[in-house]
Amino acid sequence: MAEEPWYVSAFGSDYPEVYAHRDLESARQEVRHLLRAGVAGRVLDLCCGFGRHSLALAEAGVDVFGIDLSPQLLERARDLAGAAPLEGRLGRADARRLPFQDGTFDALVNLFSSFGYFGEEGDGRVLDEIARVVRPGGRVVLDLMNPDRIRAALVPHSTRETAAGRLEESRVLRDGGRRVTKRVRLVPPDGAVREWHEDVRMYEPDELEALTAARGLERLYVEGDFDGTPFGPAAPRQLLHLRRR
Asked: In this structure, are residues 163 and 186 in contact, taking their beta carbons and an 8 Å threshold?
C-alpha cells in the first residue's frame, strides 16, 4: 500500500494541543490586521485548519467560508468557544480543486505557511484555483515562510512539552535551501507515540511575483508580520498582499 502524502498524515486531531499558541485570540488579532488591509465581503479561508481564523472573521461580521483537507481538524472546529457562526461554513476539499464557481469570493486568505505542499506543479494549480475563485478586483493574502529567515535561524533539533505530550522536532534544509523538512515525534502521556514529517517548498519573493502575476494576481505590497513589520531578510513572515486583475 502506498504511503499517504505527508500533508494528509501530519495534520491530525492533536494539532491544536501541539501548537497551542496558534489559538483563537491570536487569530482575532491577525484578523483585525487583515480587515484593515482590505479583506472584506465574501471571504474564503483556504486551508482553514480547525477554523480559528474563520471564526474570528465571522465574529467580525465577514461572510466567511473555510476549506481544509483534514477531516480531523475540521472536526476540531466544534471545540472552539462560540463556534456556532461556523455552522455549515466549513468543508473538506483539496486546494488544487476547489468546489466553487469562478469569481465566487471577494477575498481569499491562506494563512500560516499553508502553501508549498504539493511540488511546483501542484503549487501552481493552487494558485490557478485562487485566481479562479476570486472576482476581478478581489483581494488575496498569502502568509508564507520567509526563506532568508528560515535559512539563517533554522534550529536543527528541539524538544518541548505540550498539552498533547513531549514533542521532538528535527529540521533540515534540502534542495539547495529551497525546502525545509521537519520530522516530528510526539510522545503522549499514554506512550502511544505518533510520528510524521512535513516537507514545504519555500518561495523567494521574485519567484512569487512571477507565479502570481502570470495568473492575474497583482502584487500590492509585502509585510513581514501581522503587526505591519517591514519585510526583509530577518522578518518573521512573508505576508503577500495581492489583487485579482
From this structure: no
